[in-house]
């Protein structure tokens, strides 16, 4: 047991000195220390380099404890010399302890070499259950022996039903579950298979152990097989996936258990089962839980189902599927939001937010993010809810407008996605797509403003151009007041129709102003200053009207 000595209380420094004085102090303080402190002291003993005779004093003191767990820790992991009288007596004392945890602590080993009972299933099952547990409690490896023990129990029909008491040398399903729990559900067990070494034989052995354990899993009773399927590793240097013959032996409940593991791939099998309506809904939902995705056409098939069946499929996907694409999660939320099951759509929204929080848009999932932007654009063009006004893409994205499918948001997205992939200059246009709040810079506008930002910019440029042209005309020429008034009324009438007409008329007006003023200067230069002042005021009035009308149009 590894313990961080940096967290050791300072008062233990004197008590844990590996010297005679240190041990005397520890013995003097022992009875007044708490159980937690006793546990800490025993865990630190291996790192303190005590002489054997001093170490034995501390362990013997712990063995005198009234707390069974302290007695258990006192000599845990210690090898006893059968030729040493003192150690023989200590071992005998431990093996006669009234508590089974203490009594069988000498049976705990992390390797099985030379262990007769682990090598012979009949002898193993002849042991008391507490001793069986002790033999596997810290055991590393020996997967083939454990598999042989389980297989023997299944083959000889030694397993009695769950909850019953074993009789005539049999083992209950409960006891077998306990044995496997102590063996499988330990961090050390899993870490051993995850750790890669340069020892080829060791890696080969680990692969054979996993293969043997997986092979026996389908044969076991439900509770035992569930335990194995939930906790057996699926990868090692010489074991990359569960053998096909094992998967073929799994029944629907065992498959369901397997599919709920996020580290289990089997994407093709998952999809095959999901679209097999003859399978139970529980199994289909489990198949879609992890390592499962839907392409555009597959999701369209679901949206095309009758309403009741479609809503049920959408609810299951939104609630249980963890690895769908971002655009599918958004669509699940949008479509469910219009039904009585809108609360299930919130699961899809959370899953989308979870995925967005874990990705770097500059390095990964670019395609996934792009499709989400295209779906949002399609939703602008063709709202999910019938009757709502759509806003088709224009300007730089106008090439997508002809791909709109009326009354069908998802098919419109499919068309947008196809057209985008075929467009030669698509990379330069990504900046015009809708933004995503979770990953786009915070100082950008919201989605609506972003979608219209370029249009606003171009309108402002035209206004600036109009003002510059008018200023230039004032500097060069004058016009008659009556002509300007007529032009202003005409301009106001045209601006009430649309912004583009306003722009064109303003440019035309500038040319007329320039020609008229030049002609007037040639005829009457002396009145220039006075008329110029009048024109400046009128021009400001024009600009003010332009801006007011423009804002009214934008509000609409």
Automatic annotation (TrEMBL):
Keywords: Membrane, Transmembrane, Transmembrane helix
Domain of life: Bacteria
Ranges that cross the membrane: 537-554
Full protein name: Uncharacterized protein
């Amino acid at each position: 047991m590894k313990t961080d000595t940096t967290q050791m209380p300072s008062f233990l420094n004197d008590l844990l000195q590996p010297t005679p004085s240190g041990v005397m102090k520890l013995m003097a303080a022992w009875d007044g220390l708490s159980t937690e402190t006793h546990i800490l002291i025993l865990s630190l003993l291996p790192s303190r380099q005590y002489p054997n005779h001093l170490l034995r004093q501390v362990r013997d003191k712990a063995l005198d404890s009234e707390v069974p767990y302290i007695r258990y820790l006192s000599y845990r992991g210690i090898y006893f010399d059968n030729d040493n009288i003192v150690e023989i007596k200590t071992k005998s004392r431990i093996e006669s302890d009234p508590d089974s945890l203490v009594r069988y602590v000498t049976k705990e080993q992390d390797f099985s070499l030379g262990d007769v009972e682990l090598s012979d299933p009949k002898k193993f099952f002849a042991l008391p259950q507490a001793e069986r547990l002790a033999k596997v409690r810290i055991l590393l490896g020996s997967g083939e022996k454990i598999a042989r023990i389980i297989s023997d129990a299944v083959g000889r029909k030694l397993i009695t039903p769950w909850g019953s008491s074993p009789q005539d040398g049999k083992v209950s399903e409960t006891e077998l579950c306990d044995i496997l729990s102590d063996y499988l559900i330990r961090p050390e067990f899993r870490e051993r298979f995850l750790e890669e070494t340069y020892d080829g034989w060791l890696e080969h052995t680990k692969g054979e152990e996993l293969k043997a354990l997986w092979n026996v899993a389908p044969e076991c009773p439900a509770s035992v097989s569930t335990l194995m399927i939930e906790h057996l590793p699926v990868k090692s240097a010489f074991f990359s996936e569960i053998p096909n013959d094992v998967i073929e032996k799994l029944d629907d409940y065992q498959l369901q258990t397997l599919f709920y593991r996020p580290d289990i791939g089997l994407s093709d099998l998952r999809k095959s089962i999901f679209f097999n309506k003859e399978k139970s809904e529980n199994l289909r939902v489990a198949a879609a839980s992890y390592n499962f995705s839907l392409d555009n056409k597959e999701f369209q098939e679901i949206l095309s189902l009758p309403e009741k069946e479609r809503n049920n499929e959408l609810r299951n996907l939104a609630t249980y599927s963890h690895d769908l694409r971002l655009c599918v999660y958004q669509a699940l939320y949008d479509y469910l939001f219009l039904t009585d099951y809108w609360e299930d759509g919130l699961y899809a929204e959370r899953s989308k937010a979870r995925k967005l929080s874990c990705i770097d848009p500059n390095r990964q999932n670019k395609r996934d993010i792009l499709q989400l932007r295209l779906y949002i654009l399609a939703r602008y063009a063709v709202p999910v809810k019938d009757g709502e006004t759509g806003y088709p893409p224009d300007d730089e994205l106008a090439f997508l407008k002809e791909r709109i499918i009326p009354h069908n948001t998802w098919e419109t997205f499919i068309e947008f996605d196809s057209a985008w992939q075929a467009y030669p200059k698509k990379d330069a246009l990504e900046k015009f797509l809708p933004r995503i709040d979770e990953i786009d810079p915070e100082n950008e506008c919201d989605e609506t403003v972003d979608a219209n930002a370029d249009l606003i910019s171009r309108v402002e440029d035209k206004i600036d151009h109009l003002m510059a042209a008018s200023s230039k005309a004032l500097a060069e020429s004058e016009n008659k007041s009556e002509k300007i008034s007529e032009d202003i009324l005409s301009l106001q009438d045209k601006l009430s129709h649309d912004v583009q007409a306003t722009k064109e008329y303003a440019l035309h007006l500038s040319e007329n102003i320039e020609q008229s003023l030049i002609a007037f200067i040639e005829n009457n230069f002396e009145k220039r200053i006075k008329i110029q002042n009048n024109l400046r005021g009128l021009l400001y009035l024009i600009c003010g009207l332009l801006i007011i009308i423009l804002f009214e149009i934008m509000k609409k």
